Amino acid sequence: MTLQEIITKLDLKVLTTPQDFSAITPRGGYASDLLSCVMAGAQPDNVWVTLQAHMNVVAVASLREVSVVIITEGAQPEADVITRANEQGVILLSTSAPSYEIIGRLWEMGIQ
Amino acid sequence: MSSTLQETQGRKGRPITDNDAQDITRIEELSYDLRIFEVMSREVFTLAPNQTIRDGLELLRIKRISGAPVVENGDLVGVISTEDLMRALTQNDLKSPIRTYMSANVISVKSYEPVVKALETFARTNVGRLPVTNEHDQLVGMITKGDITRGVLVAIRKDYQEEEIRRYRVRHLFEDITSDRTSLILRYHIKPRDFINGGQASSHIKRAMLRLGASAQLARQCGIAVYEAEMNLIIHTTNGGILRVQIEPHRILMQTTDDGPGIPDVNKALQPGWSTAPQEARNMGFGAGMGLVNIKSCVDKMEIFSGAGKGTRLMMEIHLRPEEKFSAAEGTEEPGI
Amino acid sequence: MPLRLRHNNRKQVNYMKLSEIIKHVQGTVLNPEVQTDAEIIGGCGADLMSDVLAVVKPEAVLLTGLCNLQVVRTAEMADVRAIVFLRGKQPMPEMVELATQKGIPLISSQRGMFECCGRLYCSGLRSFETNMNGSHE
After folding, report:
1. ipTM > 0.85, yes or no
2. What is the CATH number of domain B173-331?
């Protein structure tokens, strides 16, 4: 399952600069709103689902080499967060759907 | 014993609902709380050991019972059951004394023991009725499973009525008191950084609302609003603050006041996601900058008065819809008593 | 079929028995004296309590990686039916006591948020949060 397919199926909004998402294949997912848990538990190339939208999300994602973050519940990151994400190579996607639903649908697609 | 009750309920094919489950727990409680003397039958038909088998048969037939205790000088000396009498019948021994056929080895329970003791004895021995004796081993009554069921039902009904009466009284608080403006004020001191007790005041407020007859939805709205406000006092204030709820027949006013440090830019504080909360609060799952946003969505009117170096006053107001009004006579139910 | 239909104000509502949810998350009930036969209408996965207070609807199960007294308080305020603590988090005795007092079952699962939400969603337990753009299924 490529990131492009995920974006299309879940109708995600791309916040960072668009790129060839069909070349990216995420491996597994991680969900938490607690940055300390993500620091401890997320695996590289995971899709991280969270409703947090502040600067530290980008910092943690880049530290853990999590390249894709889905921000849920319509939380809107500030412009400088998006700029930093672009600099650090973190893809930020957003949706108005709640985390539970996004996780469920990812699981359904085989991202496990 | 608890599991037996649950299983029997479950096997009847009907899934156990919340209400059932509450009742089951109460029945379990009651089987420990209720004493045997509270549910036993005091009208006991006894036989004397020197009466005849024929007398025994007559007693069982007339009183439509399946056994009787045998008493001599007030002391319980045995029991005679239909089975024992049948044995005498097959021997054609109607004239023999009861003593010959009775079981002298009597299983009995004490009147001061909890009902659960009788239930256990029923389950263990397979007998249908048990003699009840007092502390001097004198027969004072008989107990059957039917007596227990009746006793428990009466107790539950009493519980229910007491709760209903209490609710009824509270619910009609506003109607019973005549004044130009009646309000009930709940006031709580909230200590700074008291994360352990955080939410306790809100819990009390929510319960008070429900007691007053508020709908679950209204109680939830108020609960969420005051809980966020309470957590704000705990997280942000220097010296804590006061949470005050004023319940009136047609509206609810909720207010927090503190003496600092104050919010420098109130508009910014109202933005979703904006927060100055320390890590401690974030670790507790708060301080995500959603508190005021949440409050706003729960109340009809919200106002904040603050400034850097000043105290903060947060005012929240919920207007009650006509059917939610605490004094609306048409909306209040009469208790079933 | 794990999902049943319940008639609620003439509207059909999907729900799952809490006992089934416990199986799906391979959870342990921490306060067995609270009955676990509740009917759960939906799921909500979140670690921020303000978020829970903002979006969760009554009669939902809350799956969370956070483990402190405020989680129980939040559940009480928002009428959450049951709490699943993820990644094997064990609540303190005072949390269990408060939850028992409020009749809220506490469940502990070794699994993480992603796996639990994923499995429950695929077993038919839908999201039970207010969608922030207002369009809730």
Report:
1. yes
2. 3.30.565.10
